[in-house]
Amino acid sequence: MLELTDLHASYGKTPILRGVDVDVDAGEIVGIMGKNGVGKTTLVKAVMGLLEVDDGRIRFDGTDVTDEPADVRARRGMGYIPQGRDVFPELTVAENLRIGETINEGDDRLQYEAVYDYFPILEERRDQEAGTMSGGQQQMLAIGRALVGNPELLLLDEPSEGVQPSIVQDVTRNLRRVNEELGTTILFVEQNLHVVQHLAERCYAIDKGTIVDELEGDRLDSREAVTEYLAV
Amino acid sequence: MLELLNFGFEFVEIFAFIVLATVGLAVIFGMMGIINLAHGEFILVGAYATTFTFDAGLPLPLAMLAGVVLTAVYGLVLERLIIRHLYGRLLDSMVVTWGISLVMIQLTRIVFGNTAPGIGIPYGQLPVVDGPIYYLVLAVVAVGVLGGLYALFTWTDFGIRARATMQDETTARSMGVDTDRMYMTTFAVGSGLAGLAGALYAPVMTVTPEYGTGFLIETFVAVVVGGASVLVGTVLASGLLGTVNAAVTNVAGTFMGQVAMLIAAIVAIRLMPEGITGMLADWRESRGESQ
User: Fold this and answer.
1) Domain range for residue B90?
2) Which residues are in coiled coils (chain B) (predicted)?
3) Which of B164, B175, B288 shows the shortest C-beta gap to A74?
4) The pLDDT value given to residue A199
């Protein structure tokens, strides 16, 4: 459902991505792991359309979306969860979620029930300003916001970043439920061992802007194999 | 008692004037960060459209509606052609809109001459207090506009998306919000509100090519005193400046009322550089931290 072919992208004149090829099938949970500064965030932004690519193609659901702006991609069904959450701080929890309804225009089903089921705190705090919540709660809100519009693909940029370990486990578990119960395809980038091993069914390793390995099954379960690509 | 009624009437008159003159500018500045120095000339468009459609035989309310709609459309066209290239460029936007303002004043003079047909003040005079009933109508419209904007920005999809865009454009875009369209619509709404001010005051103030400048002082002072929050800022600034102006006008005449209002504005800006709503936000934050 998502195909990245020979993706090149740069920040200013510094090339960050140097030919990335990634394939994600519908219903999969795919991770992309790598150390700091190897291009993970750039890759997610390129997929979402927040960064122009220099070369290569992005196909989503059979359509070439490479030249489309981010809002069009979102309405096609990409639910994006930015690094550092980026909830709208002065909007209430309910208003933040309402913004997410715009995602996946072609699908009228809204997932409030599921969102409140995974993250009951969002229902309790629906009238609270998002900026006053803790980092973990904002992370839940960012996921809920991306989920409300029933996206086909959830795109996560380091969901563990700045979130305490107990909440990371909770978030990981809930993302698996999202995938099983709603059938949402998930693509995430991460450098947290727990998330990589407990969330991904299949994981690419990225280094210096290219995919250097692809792990599945036993190799993905092996601590040694995975930490090779994460250790600093 | 009569004294109090007079003060009350004066306050209502000035409050309505500041609110109506300001909201359009406040919406555009607060939501988009564009300081529209041609705001007065958007008001001018509303006034001329009202005057000429009224002169052509349209009933006054419809003529005013025409003023609002034409100004909104005018704003929309200008946004597409010029303003949208200026987002995020505060100083450039000021220079360009100032230029637009000059061109519009001169064009108006060339096309329509120095005077426009007059419209009499409708509805007659109030009993007891010395003043036209129409000023109370203006006050009701002002409160209605504030209520309408509150509802628009609080409850509608458009309002919530507009606020999200204002807080974080990139994230709003990545959530599927067409932020270009948000800006375009917001600018048209702000322009329409400027047109409304022009239309409503066409019967009260003589309509000339410099008509817009008659609104400018109150407008910009109120936006600066009000601060970043569009509605609360406009209401509080209009309330504060209106009270000072009305109180002094009652004692010492219209001119001194204006002077007192400007002095109050200077003091307010000195004490609250971020405007009233900026100060309120700071205060809320410090209270939150001490808890």
Assistant:
1) 2-216
2) none
3) B175
4) 93
Query: Domains of chain A (ranges plus CATH)?
Result: 2-84+152-230 (3.40.50.300)
In a domain? residue B233: no
Min distance A71 CA to chain B CA atoms (Å)? 4
A60, pLDDT greater than 90: yes
Q: Are A77 and A107 in contact (CB under 8 A)?
A: yes
ipTM metric: 0.89
> Which among B163, B164, B174 has CB closest to A74?
B174
Please enumerate in sequence order all residues whose Cβ is within 8 A of that of B261, keeping only pairs 6 or more positions apart, or say none. B218, B221, B241, B244, B245, B248
Residue of B nearest to A144 (CA): B175
Q: Which amino acid is at A210?
A: T
Mean pLDDT for B15-26 is 92
Query: Residue B237 domain-assigned?
Result: no
Whether B252 maps to a domain, the answer reads no
Rg (CA), chain B: 19
Residues of chain A with Cβ-Cβ distance to B178 below 8 Å are 71
Q: A99, B178: Cβ pair inside 8 Å?
A: no
What is A15-44 written as a DSSP string? EEEEEEEEEE-TT-EEEEE--TTSSHHHHH
Residue A165, pLDDT above cutoff 90:
no
Residue B137 token pair:
């109508």
Q: For residue B171, give the nearest of A75, A86, A101 by CB distance.
A: A86
Distance in angstroms (rounded) separating the CA atoms of residues A154 and A176: 12
**Does the pLDDT value for residue B219 go beyond 60?**
yes
Contact residues, chain B, for A105 at CB < 8 Å: 176
CA A219 vs. chain centroid, Å, equals: 23
**How many domains in chain B?**
1
Chain A to chain B Cβ contacts (< 8 Å): 67
Q: Is B231 on the interface with A (CB under 8 A)?
A: no
Q: Above 50 in pLDDT, residue B72?
A: yes
Residues of chain B neighbouring A75 (CB-CB closer than 8 A): 176
pLDDT, tens digit, 9 for 90 and up, residues B221-247: 888 888 878 888 888 888 888 889 888
Set of chain B residues whose Cβ sits within 8 Å of the Cβ of A95: 160, 163-164
